[in-house]
């Protein structure tokens, strides 16, 4: 049976099957996701986190910033370049509560248009991590894609996750919205253009569900 996904044995990130090496860790990918690392020690109990949000009116907003960007680029004969970038790690804090999120599933697409323009798109499809030591999982619910070009042959594809949602335990709803997008464009001989975009800043909102 043909495999559909591959995984990094170090960062546990998930990629499409046509990706063979982790762009960040520089190691060959494997067919099965490795086990999760040991649970992070909690800085705040789940009950205390819920109580804090309840006292804050049932909602808490935490600013996040990307501290690590994953990038890779591919090309296809003879002229098409495909650039991919995504927010690999995001962090933030509220009072003494730290937030650490790592992308564990990367969405990727590649397209082209006449005559030589290649467009690569990548985005954070799923992020997992901790809020004060309490596990949280977010899944992309809205992805933005743009394509630009420069005469005569350079194509630049940009994609990023605009919105994510998920849960932290059974009482907290987690929603993330991107507020700033990072962008880069580069080129390689002869006509290959590489566009990179990623979530640079955003707001994580925790809402109490009772």
Report what the structure shows:
5% of the residues lie in helices and 65% in strands. The chain is mostly beta strands and 210 residues long. The protein folds into two domains: 1-38; 39-208, no CATH class. The strands form two sheets. The protein has an eight-stranded antiparallel beta barrel with strand order 3-4-5-6-7-8-9-10. Strands 1-2 form a two-stranded antiparallel sheet. The chain is elongated. The model has no long low-confidence stretch (mean pLDDT 89).
Q: Mean pLDDT score, rounded?
A: 89
Major sheet, described briefly? 8 strands, antiparallel, barrel
- Low-confidence segments, given as residue ranges, are none
Strand order of the largest sheet: 3-4-5-6-7-8-9-10
Tertiary shape: elongated
**Number of separate structural domains:** 2
The number of helical runs is: 1
Total beta strand runs: 10
Query: What distance separates the N and C termini?
Result: 45 Å
Write the layout of secondary structure elements.
Elements: E1 5-7, E2 14-16, H1 46-55, E3 59-76, E4 80-94, E5 97-113, E6 117-131, E7 134-150, E8 154-168, E9 172-188, E10 192-208
Antiparallel strand pairs: 1-2, 3-4, 3-10, 4-5, 5-6, 6-7, 7-8, 8-9, 9-10
């Amino acid at each position: 049976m043909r495999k559909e996904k591959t995984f990094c044995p170090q960062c546990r990130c998930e990629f499409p099957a046509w990706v063979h090496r982790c762009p960040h860790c520089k190691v060959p990918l494997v067919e099965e996701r490795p086990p999760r690392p040991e649970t992070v020690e909690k800085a705040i109990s789940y009950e205390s986190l819920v109580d804090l949000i309840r006292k804050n009116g049932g909602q808490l907003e935490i600013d996040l910033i990307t501290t690590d960007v994953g990038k890779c680029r591919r090309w296809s004969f003879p002229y098409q370049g495909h650039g991919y970038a995504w927010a690999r790690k995001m962090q933030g804090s509220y009072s003494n509560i730290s937030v650490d999120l790592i992308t564990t599933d990367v969405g990727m697409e590649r397209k082209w248009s006449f005559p030589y323009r290649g467009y690569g798109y990548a985005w954070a499809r799923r992020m997992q991590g901790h809020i004060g030591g309490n596990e949280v999982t977010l899944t992309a619910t809205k992805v933005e894609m743009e394509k630009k070009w420069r005469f005569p042959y350079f194509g630049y594809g940009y994609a990023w996750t605009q919105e994510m949602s998920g849960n932290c335990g059974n009482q907290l709803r987690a929603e993330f919205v991107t507020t700033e997008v990072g962008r880069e464009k580069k080129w390689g001989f002869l006509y290959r253009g590489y566009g990179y975009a990623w979530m640079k800043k955003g707001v994580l909102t925790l809402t109490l569900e009772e």
